[in-house]
Specification:
Elements lengths: L14 H8 L3 E5 L2 E4 L1 H20 L3 E2 L5 E3 H7 L2 H5 L7 E3 L5 E4 L4 H11 L8 E10 L14 E11 L2 H21 L4 E5 L10 E7 L5 E5 L6 E3 L19 E4 L6 H8 L7 E10 L4 E9 L6 H12 L3 E6 L2 H6 L30 E5 H4 L4 E4 L5 E6 L9 E3 L19 E15 L1 H5 L3 E3 L5 E3 L1 E8 H11 L1 E2 L2 E2 L10 E5 L5 H16 L4 E4 L5 H11 L3 E5 L7 E6 L5 E5 H15 L4
Parallel strand pairs: 3-7, 15-17, 17-20, 27-28, 27-29
Antiparallel strand pairs: 1-2, 4-6, 5-6, 7-8, 8-24, 9-10, 10-21, 11-12, 11-21, 13-19, 14-15, 14-16, 18-19, 21-24, 22-23, 25-26, 29-30, 30-31
Helix pairs in contact: 1-12, 2-6
Bound molecules: adenosine-5'-triphosphate (ATP) and magnesium ion.
Length: 592
C-alpha cells in the first residue's frame, strides 16, 4: 500500500513530519493524534523489537498495565491535582459511577502500588518491569507530528530495589541498554545530565538526538566531559564589569524600565545591574506565593532551577509559575508595583491586604548576582534607579542559590579552560533514579534484611518510541526523501519493476523478489502500473535502504542495485545482486 503525496502538507513545519506525511507513513486524525499507516507500523515494530531485546537482556520482564487509572492512586502520590488542574496534561474523566479516572500519561502510580502488593521481601528484589504502549498527554502545544503527540508510544520501565546501591546498579545497566538501543537503531544519541526535578531523585539523564529542530537546548563542553540539558546546566558566569562609583545615589531614569534602555542611556553594562523580577508560584497546598527574584542584568532566569529552589525552601510542590501583572495586582486589591524599577529590597508592605496571595515575598537571589560588590538596581519608585548599591544597603541576601540559565561561551566547572557550546536536541529517552518518593507516598514497602519495613527504592526509564521513529528521519534524510537506517527501515529492499508492460521484466522482478524473501531479506515489490520515474521518486521518498531496479537489462538477466544513502548504482546479474544485497544487509546490521 503506497499512498504518497506530491505536495508538502501545510501544517507540517519540520522536514521529518513533512516526509512522513508525504511518504504515507502517518496521517493526522486530530491535534496531536496520528494513525500509523502500514509502513510506519513496520518501523515501530522494528524499533519495539530492538528495544525489547535490549531491555529483556537487562533482566527486565515485559508487562502491560492499564491505561485507565483511578484518581485515588494519583491522589495518594499527590500528583492528581497538578496533572489535572491548570496546565496539567492528564486527560481525565468521570465514569458512570461518578468515579474519577485518568488516562495514563505515565505509570509510576499504578506500578508502584502493584509491586508494593506483590513484593514482600528483599529476596524478591531487584525487579524491573516494562511495557510498550500508548501514553496520553494533553500537551499544551502538540506539534511536529509524532515529536509531540497527545497519544504516543512509549517504552516505560520501572525498577525496584532493596537499597540505593542496587538502584544505582540498575540505573547504570539501563543506561548501557539505552546506548545499545539507539546505536542499533542507527541513531547518534547524546547522553546529557537532566533535571531530576522536585522529585528529589539523585540522578537523571536524557538521551538526545542532535538536531536543529530539537526542542531542548543542550550545553556541552568541547572535551565532551560535560553535557547537560539547559534546564540543569551549570557554569562559571563571565566576569562582571566592575562598577566604579564611590557613593550610593538615586538617579532619574524615566522610560528606562528595561536593562537595554538603562544601559544605552547611561553607559552601564548589563552585568552591573541587579534585575529584580516579581513572580507568583502556585503551590500544591493551594497557596499563591509572591516571589522576588534577583539576577544579574546579563543573565536569564532558569524556571526549572527556580521551581526546585522553591520546593527545597518550602517543601511544597510548585504547580505553576507566572509573572505578576498589573491586572493581577488590581484583582488582589493591591496598588500597582513600580514595574521596571523594582529593587531587591521592595517592602512586603506592597502585598499587604492581598485577597488570596501570601503577604510576603519569597526572596531568592541567584548566586552570581550575590557576588557583585556594587551594583545598580531599581529604587522601588517609578523612574528611579539606585547606583552604587551594595547588599548591605539593600537589606542583605535572603536565599542564595543557582537560578540562572547557563549559556554558551561560559566556562565549565570541571575545567575553566573549556567553554560551553550550545546544541539542540530531541529527547528520545530519559532514565531516572526516583529513590523512595513514590513508594513512600503509596505505602509500597518490603521487609529488608534486618526484618524492618522499608519503602522500595525505585528507578524509572522511558523511551519515546514514536518520537524516536520520527527523530531518525530528522537525522537521516535528503532532498529526495527519507533514508531509513536499515535496522528500523520498514523494508530492507524494494524491488522496482520499471515497465509492467514488459513481461520479461515482470517475470524477472517477481522471481527476484521471491528469491530475496526466501533469503530472509525484508523486501517490498513495486509492481504498480506506474511510470518508472514515479516509482523511483516514491522509492526515494519512502527511504528504503536498497533498491533493485528490474528494467531494460532484464534481457541479459541483469538488475540495477541502488543504495539509497550513497546513491551508488551497480549493474549485476541476479545471483550476484542477491549475494551482494545479503552481504550488505547483514554487514550493516549493527552488532553490539
Ligand atoms: P518532554 O520534555 O519532551 O515533554 P518528558 O520529559 O515530559 O518529555 P518523559 O516523561 O521523560 O517525557 O517521557 C519519556 C519519553 O517519552 C521522552 O523522553 C520522550 O522521548 C517521549 N515523549 C514524552 N512526551 C512525548 C510526546 N508528547 N510525544 C511523543 N513522545 C513523547
Ligand atoms: Mg523527560
Amino acid at each position: 500500500m503506497l499512498a504518497t503525496l506530491r505536495d508538502t502538507p501545510s501544517d507540517a513545519e519540520i522536514i521529518s513530519h513533512q516526509l512522513l506525511i508525504r511518504g504515507g507513513y502517518i496521517r493526522r486524525v486530530g491535534a496531536g493524534i496520528y494513525a500509523y499507516l502500514p509502513l510506519m507500523w513496520r518501523v515501530l515494530k522494528k524499533i519495539n523489537a530492538i528495544v525489547k531485546e535490549e531491555i529483556d537482556a537487562t533482566g527486565a520482564l515485559e508487562t502491560l498495565l492499564p491505561q485507565l487509572q483511578p484518581a485515588e492512586l494519583w491522589k495518594k502520590s499527590g500528583r492528581w491535582q497538578g496533572y489535572t488542574d491548570g496546565e496539567g496534561i492528564m486527560f481525565h474523566l468521570i465514569d458512570r459511577q461518578g468515579k474519577e479516572l485518568g488516562l495514563g500519561p505515565t505509570h509510576e502510580e499504578v506500578i508502584t502500588s502493584l509491586v508494593g502488593e506483590i513484593v514482600n521481601s528483599y529476596r524478591q528484589l531487584p525487579l524491573t518491569l516494562y511495557q510498550i504502549q500508548s501514553k496520553f498527554r494533553d500537551e499544551i502545544r502538540p506539534r511536529f507530528g509524532l515529536m509531540r503527540g497527545r497519544e504516543f508510544i512509549m517504552k516505560d520501565a520501572y525498577s525496584f530495589h532493596s537499597d540505593e546501591a542496587s538502584l544505582q546498579k540498575g540505573y547504570a545497566s539501563m543506561g548501557v541498554a539505552y546506548r545499545k538501543i539507539f546505536n542499533r537503531c542507527g541513531l547518534e544519541a547524546l547522553v546529557v545530565d537532566a533535571d531530576s526535578g522536585a522529585i528529589g531523585g539523585s540522578a537523571s539523564q536524557e538521551f538526545m538526538i542532535a538536531s536543529e529542530t530539537g526542542e531542548d537546548l543542550i550545553l556541552t563542553s568541547p572535551d565532551n566531559k560535560y553535557s547537560a540539558n539547559q534546564e540543569k546546566a551549570v557554569s562559571v558566569p563571565t566576569q562582571e564589569v566592575p562598577l566604579a562609583v564611590e557613593e550610593t545615589s538615586i538617579i532619574r531614569t524615566p522610560g528606562q524600565s528595561t536593562i537595554d534602555k538603562l544601559c544605552a542611556e547611561n553607559g552601564f553594562a548589563p552585568s552591573q545591574i541587579v534585575k529584580s523580577l516579581v513572580m507568583l508560584a502556585k503551590t500544591d497546598d493551594g497557596h499563591s506565593q509572591p516571589l522576588l527574584l534577583c539576577l544579574r542584568g546579563d543573565h536569564e532566569l532558569n524556571e526549572v532551577k527556580l521551581v526546585n529552589a522553591i520546593t527545597s525552601e518550602t517543601g511544597k510542590t510548585v504547580q505553576e509559575i507566572t509573572i505578576i501583572s498589573p491586572k493581577q495586582l488590581a484583582e488582589q486589591g493591591l496598588s500597582p508595583f513600580p514595574f521596571g524599577y523594582i529593587g531587591p529590597d521592595i517592602d512586603d508592605v506592597v502585598l499587604k491586604g492581598a485577597k488570596s496571595w501570601n503577604n510576603n515575598f519569597l526572596r531568592i537571589f541567584d548566586s552570581s548576582v550575590c557576588s557583585l560588590k556594587k551594583f545598580i538596581c531599581g529604587a522601588n519608585q517609578n523612574d528611579k534607579h539606585l547606583i552604587g548599591a551594595t547588599w548591605e544597603t539593600v537589606g542583605g541576601i535572603p536565599i542564595k542559590t543557582d537560578i540562572r540559565k547557563a549559556k554558551s561561551g561560559e566556562r565549565c566547572l570541571h575545567d575553566p579552560t573549556q567553554m560551553l557550546q550550545e546544541r539542540r536536541g530531541i529527547e528520545v529517552g530519559h532514565i531516572f533514579q526516583l529513590g523512595q518518593k513514590y513508594s513512600e507516598a503509596l505505602g509500597a514497602c518490603f521487609t529488608n534484611e534486618r526484618g524492618l519495613q522499608e519503602p522500595l527504592w525505585m528507578g524509572c526509564y522511558g523511551i519515546g518510541i514514536s518520537r524516536l521513529a520520527q527523530a531518525a528521519i530528522e537525522q537521516h534524510h535528503d532532498e529526495a526523501g527519507m533514508i531509513w537506517p536499515i535496522a528500523i527501515a520498514p523494508f530492507e529492499a524494494i524491488v522496482v519493476i520499471a515497465n509492467m508492460k514488459d513481461e520479461q521484466q515482470k517475470e524477472l522482478g517477481k522471481k527476484f523478489y521471491n528469491q530475496l524473501k526466501e533469503a530472509g531479506v525484508d523486501a517490498l515489490l513495486d509492481d504498480r502500473d506506474e511510470r518508472a520515474g514515479v516509482k523511483f521518486k516514491d522509492a526515494d521518498l519512502i527511504g528504503i535502504p536498497w533498491r533493485v531496479v528490474v528494467g531494460r537489462d532484464s534481457s541479459e538477466g541483469k538488475v540495477e542495485l541502488f543504495q539509497r544513502s550513497s546513491r551508488k548504482t551497480e549493474k549485476l546479474v541476479t545471483e550476484e545482486a542477491i549475494n551482494t544485497l545479503i552481504s550488505e544487509i547483514t554487514q550493516t546490521k549493527p552488532i553490539d
